[in-house]
């Protein structure tokens, strides 16, 4: 999930849904409420740990944190030097995930199909939005954390791409690599607030509208393919800062079809297949039950 969340257009929520831990994750986060905090303040460590599914959350978020920190620099390099090939791998991963997620809908009726269409339209609409300018103020970074974390736990909506839309993806990726606490702290505070608040809403929706929710998320994932299409030109604009320096900012994308005589095209196609197979094998592995 950590590796997925670093890539623009790829959602850690998709990985959680495919591997079968999504609803447990949402319910565990939702359990961090006032009742749980009272147990903590009373130093009732074991009941508190049990209520919040502490072992599960610790293992998961430790893995996410280690992955983000360790892969931030590598993925920053790959996206800079080999963007087409990198995005091709994740395109294949997301392409197969549409099928893997959609097949968990128990009954495809009219409301589920409408939810699928709405989810697809929302994700494509986000892809067409022009990114905002970079902003390093405390409250804007806090807001980035809230919005990014909410989208991060929604399958198909990438927290990284939301940060691009909000103009702060490069700023935050660089801050993680250099461990810039003035950027990381307000972002982290927003992430914590956002994920706890949003998990309560999401858990209720999952409980009462399971099939429609999965269909909507399938649409999110399907629509996100427009964001991670490997063959596109990034449109940028140069902004002048107050200190006299300049900054290149992303303003949109120009999609195109690849050349079939280009060797890199076939390398990208191979990586699409590898990405699809890797997630399919991950899904198969998560479905294998341990012997009693």
Please sum up the structure shown.
This protein is mainly alpha-helical.
Total number of helical segments? 14
User: What integer is the average pLDDT?
Assistant: 80
Supply the number of structural domains: 1
Largest sheet: 2 strands, antiparallel
Q: How would you classify the quaternary structure?
A: single chain
Give the overall silhouette.
globular
Estimated radius of gyration: 20 Å
Plain-language structure description:
A two-stranded antiparallel ribbon has the order 1-2. With 292 residues, it is mainly alpha-helical.
Which helices and strands, and how do they pair?
Layout: H1 2-6, H2 12-18, H3 22-30, H4 34-41, H5 45-51, H6 54-81, H7 83-102, H8 110-128, H9 138-152, H10 159-165, H11 169-178, H12 181-208, H13 210-224, E1 232-240, E2 246-255, H14 263-287
Antiparallel strand pairs: 1-2
Helix pairs in contact: 2-7, 3-12, 4-5, 6-7, 6-11, 7-13, 7-14, 8-13, 9-10, 9-12, 11-12, 12-13
Summary tags:
2 strands; 292 residues; mainly alpha
